[in-house]
Amino acid sequence: MSNFLTKENKALLAELVRTDFKLRYQGSLLGYVWSLLKPLLLFGILYVVFVNFLRVGNEIQHFAVYLLIGIVLWNFFTEMTVQSVGAIVGRSDLIRKIKIPRWTVVISTSISATINLLLSLVIVAIFMVVNQVPLTLAGVLLFPVYVIWLYLLALGFSFLLSALYVKFRDVSYIWEVILQGGFYATPIIYPLQMVKNELLEKLLLLNPVALVIQGVRDAIIGDKTLSFFDLWHNPLAIVVPVGFTLVVLVGGWLYFQKESKFFAENL
Which of 93, 95, 139, 155 is the most buried (most CB within 10 A)? Predict the structure, then answer.
């Protein structure tokens, strides 16, 4: 990736992202509007079920914003990794015919997911205004840090999964199961306070995705959101999720680089 900023690579990335968006919404009546509708519809269903029927979230101030933040960030992570699984295989004709940097294919899917995240954040901002959630300095400073962390974690998985899928097509099914389990193991649709076991609460926040979601909530909403450092009083505990992220990012990249030499012949 040393030549990442060359004109050729930037032009290639731009074209791959444009093509990805065209293909993704091809034949859809609403097209790009689905980027906004998907998190909104999921939010609406979950909010009605958990607030009106299950009476969950009453103890959380601005629970609507709290829930939406979790959905938007989780959707970003899942979209980026799921789209990357078949990215190399999906561009097999291009990879076989033209010598292009293989990583541009994976990076282009991550850019597409990031654009959708930015669109979804407009909805979050509107909800913050409607719910009168004040924008704090902590929120402004910490939010991009957490999003970059989540992006790097997802990017590591993206490199790993896309390379694995070239050889093992079962990877997509395995990852879907992992994500399904991760959705319920991460405090997205329920407050962390519902977990009535302090040790389990701590273990859940060792998951970098859960840590990021709770961190963003704490920075934006604050009151009673239980961030990582509220539960782990030893600051050294942060080494575990940070270390895991680095292992996934570096390990995924190295494996991708190793396997990319054989993509053309394996496709």
Answer: 155
| Domain membership flag for residue 2 | no
Which residue in this structure is represented by tokens 């609507």? 64
Does residue 1 sit within a domain?
Answer: no
Looking at the structure of the chain, the number of domains it has is: 1
Range of the domain at 169: 7-266
Report whether 94 contacts 100 (CB < 8 A).
Answer: yes
Identify whether 261 is part of a domain. Answer: yes
- Computed over every residue of the chain, the mean pLDDT equals 89
Rounded to an integer, what distance in angstroms lies between the CA atom of residue 75 and that of residue 190? 16
For the whole model, what pTM was predicted? 0.91
Q: CB neighbours of 208 closer than 8 A, spacing ≥ 6?
A: 149, 150, 153, 241, 242, 244, 245
pLDDT digits (tens, 9 = 90+) for 90-129: 888 888 888 888 999 999 999 999 999 999 999 999 999 9
Query: What span, in angstroms and rounded, lies between the C-alpha atoms of 69 and 76?
Result: 11
Residue 231 included in any domain: yes
